[in-house]
Amino acid sequence: FTLFLHMAANLFDYVLVVKYERNKGPAISYKFPQVIDVNDEIAKAAPSFCFPEGQGNAVQSKKETFSFTLTTGTGEKRFGYCRRFVSGSSEPECYCIVSQNSSFSLFSNILDIVEERRKSSNSAVFTFLKSLQAQSKPNPGERIVISTFSATGASEPDKYELKVPMHNEFLLDYISYAALFKRLDIDKVITLFECLLLESRTIFVSKKLSRLSECVNAAAAMLSPFSWQYVFIPVLPTSLLGYCC
Question: CA angle at residue 3 from 207 to 221, to 5 degrees?
Fold first, then answer.
């Protein structure tokens, strides 16, 4: 678990649109920018984390917002911020923003805009992402103002304002202790805290990805000012369960 204190040069590395087909499983249907290499180690792994239930398992929730963390071969962390949609008879779809930056609320707000513009068209989504990517490196506490083509075809551009958290806000920004204490009573939370301090292997199980992501990050944040020193995987695909057993 790492708190992000220095913004990377770009707000995000790339965005993947992952679709899930019951007989084939998850696969990348679109990528932004187009020039990214889908054989990149993170891009290859991302679809399984967008739909971790495994092939053949039904995706139940209408909408899920969650995050995952992957580590490159050189030890660098990449954060995946996901918004998953299930609408009618269409295939489940997930928008995944891959970034070196850790700020759940910032990227959740970006995904809110993606969801809003997606109702108009996919091109409305990607004109926004292109405008966002063109922004200069933001500083903690700074507000980013994005002006982009109107999603509805109006003559006036759409404008959005995003706030980058301050250094001292990142811990509270990323987690929600309420989710953890709502699911576990105080005795179980204390037991969990003891296990983490003793560096015991700890596995969380949940039917909802949003809840799982919130609780795992909250548990890791409880260790502050210490930090978890070993493998940290907020969401683990079914196909990789043997990795932690």
Answer: 50
Question: pLDDT for 103-162, tens place per residue?
Answer: 888 899 999 999 999 989 888 999 999 999 888 777 778 888 999 998 888 889 999 999
Q: With both helix axes pointing from N to C terminus, report the angle between 209-221 and 186-197 in degrees, rounded to the nearest 10.
A: 60
Instruction: Measure CA 127 to chain center.
Output: 21
Sequence-ordered strand ranges (E) for the chain: 14-21, 25-32, 63-71, 77-85, 93-99, 143-148, 158-163
State how far the Cα of 38 lies from the Cα of 35, in Å rounded to an integer. Answer: 9
DSSP code at position 106: H
The residues, any chain, with a CB within 8 Å of residue 244's CB and separated by 6 or more, are: 201, 203, 233, 236
Please give the model's pTM, rounded to 2 decimal places: 0.83
d(C-alpha 242, C-alpha 163), whole Å = 40
User: Within 13 Å, how many C-alpha atoms sit on residue 174's CB side?
Assistant: 27
